[in-house]
Amino acid sequence: MATLAHEAHTPTQTHAEVTRDVVNTLGTAGRGYFMLLGLAVAMFLVGAATFVALLKYGLGLAGYTPPVMWSVYITTFVFWIGIGHAGTLISAILFLFRSPWRTVVYRATEAMTVFAVMTAALFPIIHIGRQWFFYWLLPYPNARYLWPNFKSPLIWDVFAITTYFTVSSTFLVVGLVPDVAAARDKMFGWRKKIYEIASLGWKGTHEQWRHYTRAYLYLAALATPLVLSVHSVVSWDFAMSLVPGWHGTIFAPYFVAGAIYSGVGMVLTLLIPLRKALKLEHMFTEYHFDNLAKLTLFTGSILFYAYAMEYFVGWYSANKFEQTTFWLRAFGPMWWAGWTMIICNAFVSQLFWFKKIRTNLTALFVISIFINIGMWFERYVIIVSSLSNDFEPWAWGQMTPTWADWGILMGSFGWFGMWFLLFARTFPVVAIQEIKETIPWPRLRKGGH
Amino acid sequence: MAKPVAGVLGSFVHIDAATEAIRALRAEGRTGFTVYTAAANHEVEEALGITSSPVRLFTLIGGLTGCAAGFGMTLWMSVDWPLLVGGKPIASVPPYVVLAFELTILIGALSTVAGTLILSLLKPTTGLAYDPSFSDDRIGIFVPVGPEQAGSVERLLKTAGAEEVRRED
Q1: What is the DSSP code (8-state) at residue B6?
Q2: Is the full-model pTM beyond 0.90?
Q3: CB distance from A185 to chain B under 8 Å?
Q4: Is the ipTM of this complex over 0.85?
Q5: Which of B37, B63, B41, B48 minimizes the C-alpha distance to B115?
Q6: B134 with B145, same domain?
Q7: What fold is seen in the domain A18-438?
Q8: Which residues of A, range 407-446, sit inside 8 Å of B by Cβ?
Q9: Contact A156 B83 (CB under 8 A)
């Protein structure tokens, strides 16, 4: 994977070539695909087996030790929710900004969002211990006339995540309809029948486009404040408490920036091999990766500032508890995790000031792995190190992750990978109709629009 | 299978030819025809004189319903089972803004999709002539007319620059 050749910003293909190239990615896959899918399913089964053990023996298996009663599962929950944010940023926010580079990458990132939120949504259920009572979180009429406490950020989170999953899935499906219709018209036999059902009778009539384009715009307009609210609500799970290291007013924007940063990292991790596997190198060009890297640099720099500000506020507050928490993050028992977070997020992202790095796929892929690791550790540090050392030193304590933590973490990557791989071979991973919108139609006469 | 609608189907390669045909059809007073494109196109919309879709009403009503439902649900449930938390009022509006906001988005988005489906169903496409190339790289115009007028419509589409014109019986 060498440095990419520079290519023009507007697609050079014709309408027919776009349909052909994207539809060619569907259908029967090669051996490599099935090996990857097999690996993902195997990882998921490890997670499923671990979950069965948790159901039988309880959360004690997961190394929960007072005072650290939120650890790897909540860390991984926040990690996956964060991953989803880049997808919505690219698909909805950049749509409103009419950013031309989003068109090619948005479908894959929106799919990533839906599957990441599907993965994240499993974690609160795994974490609550008595998983069979998860529906207690919902406001449903019950024999004792009890309702949830709507002043709790944890209940806000239930509503935020449910809304986020529903709206993201809707946005993905709505975007897919015209593309599935385009695939339907190129298919034969039983495949054609399946795509015919999935295309919901789409024919691209002017009336259909009239309602569709408006609906799409409004969905993007609704998804934009939603994505900013979701990670703000997730951050309030922490910031609304009094735990040192959590009780910060910068948490909402800090978490949103971190979420987008981690999400773009995952986009890079997924797209770099995907473009090669699906032979779409001519579509995902230097231009797209350069812009993704710039977005990473921007959000990574906000994180750099937020990390610095957290330490500054800790010191400037003259609050002994805050000061101790941040001192221990850098030099306490979890120093290695604290520095992993700072190096992988604040420092590594700064490499993207150099265009040579932004357009080198090998470098991008390696850095994206660092971002994924760094952002998982960020949440681990915030959650575990803050809980380990709160107010009273006699109540301090460390937790060590166990096989049950790693099993579920591995299972979550398998679950996510399984859905993403299945999606990539079943549905168009590049938005056919949106690219066609940017390609000028041929003209019979000179001049014109 | 729905009964096929009789008419004339024209296929265009060029956008300016298609928009000229649309304008000519409208100039003749024909309004019931259908234009197929593989992607949304402003020139086609302009030629057709398309007005904004009423789907926005569904979004607005859905959003307002969600907002009212969010505040209504949280306030009513708080009063129904009074739970004193942190010395705060029983029915406290600021924390409920979060829930009202989420429900505004949720119901607003779902009603937008429902609106699109309902509005699309008002003009069913079953029975209208269609060609798979319209989702690829051709622009289609289907004019539902009887055999007595089919000839003049065929001529109109060909004059505008249609690549192919065929009658559907």
Answers
A1: P
A2: yes
A3: yes
A4: yes
A5: B63
A6: yes
A7: Formate dehydrogenase/DMSO reductase fold (1.20.1630)
A8: 432-434, 436-437, 441-445
A9: no
